[in-house]
Amino acid sequence: MLSRDNLHDYQNRAISFIKAKKRCALFLDMGLGKTTTSLTTASDLLDGFAVSKVLVIAPLRVANSVWAQECTQWQHLKHLKVSVCTGSEKSRIAALLTPADIYTINRENVPWLVKHYGKRWPFDCVIVDESSSFKNASSQRFKALKRVLPDTEYLWLLTGTPSPNSLLDLWAQLYLVDFGERLGRTITGFKQRFFESDYMGYNLTPRVGAPEKIHQLISDKCLSMTAVDYLTLPERIDLTESVSLPAKALKTYKDFEAQLFTELADGTEIEAMSAAVLANKLLQMANGAIYTDESGNWSNIHDSKLDALKELVESHPEENLLIAYNYKSDLARLTSAFPDAVVLDKEQTTIDDWNAGKTKMLFAHPASAAHGLNLQSGGAVVIWFGLNWSLELYQQFNGRLHRQGQTKPVRIVHIVADGTIDERVMTVIKSKDATQQALISALICAR
After folding, report:
1. If I label 239, which of 20, 261, 355, 386 is the partner at 20 to 30 A Cα–Cα?
2. Confidence at 234, pLDDT banded by 50, 70, 90
3. pTM score, whole prediction
4. Does residue 440 sit within a domain?
């Protein structure tokens, strides 16, 4: 069992930072041990009577297992009792009534939790795991947590992706830390101060010098660390497997892209009523199928990506493969083509079998496997069968394998359909990454 002496210097630095600031954000890369760092800090605060009750808000799968499991792996944390407050309302209430040191709840139930306690909020320490899920100032979870901030003495945010889409994502998260002291009391004021809008008022771009000013303003409350600086990770190799669509499928795709309307071979008519719907439908078509109605029925367009995946499987006979899919139609086609593959579910045995090397191919949706899962023991190849627009999901999913404990070079393979929206998604992901890396780099330099 690991002991406190096994903590890295950067983890001890983070622990001291939290204790000194009380309310802060840890922008720590995947694999830097955010959970252990937070549990050690919480244990110290509890032992020193600085706090009496700790709440962890996390993605559902992480809330259910990761925090409790981490306590069992460290000698100095095994005394902590963790109560998991998820599931039915009856189960949540029972868990809240159970004497414990730390209570974990999934972020979707934060509004319920705040309403449940009313003016009797008992948690003087709150840890928000993957705080980018609170980036939307209009969300119910943010509004609920905002109401109990005055009753929370210690609060810290944990994420490796603080601004997955743009610097706009920072305002709500920093408000949880400082009540709007640094970036303004309202999101509207933040936008007016640091961003310019186009003539329609829809698209916002940072004013000249705004990113640097934002970085400067928040640097005293944010500790940022990257795995590159603190860990010796195996090499990450990004690869693109380009596929060409059959002529008929490509024509259908191009016609739909240009006209927002197409008729499939069986006579089914497909129409896109907005740009967002069009983008979603084009992603489906690039993968090989398109939904034909709101009931979930879909029609096959081509098998180019399936054929490419089969070739990748054949060319990597000794490798276990983690496959990212985007739509249920993708999963249906994948499981039909690879009947021996396993689909990631909520069972711990599925994860255990993968990490034990028993699973040759694991299908997972990025939203289900993006946060908190340690899958690095089971394989070193990620294949993106279907891409999506979310930088956060993209980075976090890749980080399931490319993280501390991985012993082999990690290959990230993107199956990209030539001449389709896939190519634009790759460009957008890189662009968003540049924005986030600028934030991270600036915060590191400010320390």
Report:
1. 355
2. confident
3. 0.72
4. no
